[in-house]
Design goal:
The chain is an alpha+beta fold. Helix content is about 45%, strand content about 15%.
Length: about 250
């Protein structure tokens, strides 16, 4: 099977990808971290960062089953987080810190919220909690620091960035958001982006101790609300988002 080729032109100056260094960060991930990570990722054959943009030539895992069982994915994430707790951010100090580009996210959320509230499909508790986040996205981001020690996180640990092999092995794809943060941030996003509310307790148990989950959920709810804006109101995808966001808010009551 031919390899998967991922090309990115230089990010637009001042954009979130540029400020976060998303494209160059993924190249550095495959060059420096992937060989040591201890988690299945696509094999990397080429990783280049030039004035023309970035180039990755990767193992093509498209024949694997899209997604992953969330409990199995939680165990994979937990193992990675524990392995690199306290050590990963020291070894790779270039990893994105908590709060990077938060001013841009704050502005984006303030612009997006009026459109979200007009949709009319947010459950009342979600709408109330989300409105209270306007102007407080930075506070929600800072609260992540109280969720536990820093480790390497994937940063976008949702089902669409996972594949399951024939023997059940879970691979993590798309490392543009690799960061230094408490591991519970990955767990919270796996839950909010991809896990049916009826399975949340099972997935949390599979991950392990998650006492600081409430510290990361507000920031993840912001991320979830921004993500659902592209789903038409009333669509199956929008209904799934609102159910998961409702569960996230219920965990904070």
């Amino acid at each position: 099977m031919p390899p998967f080729v991922k090309r990115r032109p230089p990010a637009a100056p001042g954009s979130i990808p540029a400020v976060l260094g998303m494209f160059t960060g993924e190249v550095r991930f495959y060059r420096e971290i992937a060989p040591l990570l201890g988690v299945r990722v696509p094999a990397c054959y080429t990783a280049e960062d030039t004035a023309e943009g970035t180039l990755l030539v990767l193992e093509d895992l498209s024949a694997w089953t899209p997604g992953a069982d969330p409990a199995r994915a939680a165990r994979v994430l937990s193992g990675m987080h524990h392995r690199w707790s306290g050590a990963g951010p020291v070894r790779w100090p270039w990893l994105r810190p908590i709060g990077a580009a938060i001013d841009l996210v704050e502005e984006l959320y303030a612009r997006t919220w009026p459109h979200l509230v007009q949709r009319g499909d947010l459950p009342r508790p979600v709408a109330a909690f989300s409105e209270a986040l306007v102007g407080r996205v930075t506070d929600a981001e800072r609260a992540i620091l109280d969720a536990g020690p820093l480790t390497i996180i994937h940063g976008d640990a949702q089902a669409r960035n996972m594949r399951t092999g024939p023997a059940g092995e879970v691979a993590l794809l798309d490392w543009e958001d690799v960061s230094a943060a408490p591991g519970l941030l990955d767990l919270a996003w796996l839950l909010t982006s991809s896990t049916d509310p009826g399975r949340w307790d099972e997935v949390i148990d599979a991950y392990g101790p998650a006492h600081g989950l409430h510290h990361v959920l507000p920031a993840v709810i912001v991320q979830g609300l921004l993500s659902m804006t592209g789903e038409p109101p009333g669509s199956p995808e929008a209904r799934a988002w609102t159910a998961r966001l409702d569960e996230a808010c219920s965990r904070l009551r």
